Amino acid sequence: MSHNENFKDSSSKRHLFAAITVMFAAPLLPMLMGWFTVLS
To answer: Is the sign of the CA dihedral 12, 18, 21, 23 positive or negative?
Structure first.
């Protein structure tokens, strides 16, 4: 465990935003693939 921890706020916000995006996008991916299958 290091005592001199410098976490960048911008990268943590970016990872949080990416996690939220994945949480919403992951359930929609099968539906999106189904639409691509129907339209092709």
So the answer is: negative
pTM above 0.70, yes or no: no
* pLDDT for 36: 86
CB-CB neighbours of 39 under 10 Å: 6
Phi, psi for residue 7 in degrees, rounded to 5: -95, 135
Residue 8, SS3? coil
Per DSSP, helices labelled H in the chain are 9-39
- Rounded Cα–Cα distance for residues 36 and 8 (Å): 39
> Phi, psi at residue 12, to the nearest 5°?
-70, -35
